[in-house]
Amino acid sequence: MTRLIRLGAVLRARQAREDAAKAEVVRVRQAATHAAELANRREAALQESEVPAEGVAQSVAAALAARQALAADLSLARRLVAERNQAVKERMRELTAKAQARRVVEKLIERQLAEERRLAEAAEQRALDDIAATRPLPITVGPERVPGGVS
Hints:
Layout: H1 2-48, H2 57-134, E1 139-141, E2 144-146
Antiparallel strand pairs: 1-2
Helix pairs in contact: 1-2
């Protein structure tokens, strides 16, 4: 029984770790979603920006510089999306490992309970066998049976 108590404590600790890993996955997924939204906004801004077909050289140069800055921002946003998606994959691997560790303890508890049931059933069977073996058998004397061997 003490082993079950210890395993119960281990199971609760593993469950807490798994819950923390789930929360971390949710947090990282939200960060990845925000990064993807940022990248989409940067891409839309880049597509909306235009270089004037004609005009003063300074305004054309400024427009080109602005597009270049938007392209650099988009590149950084896409890199951030890739990093966040990688972080999601890593956290999912960690969550999977923690869930497997919890399941191992659950299986140990199940095996321990099954073993305790088996031992209890075996002890009960031995007790029944002892009762059956120590009960006096009836003795047949002539045509009559005498219970317990007493005439």
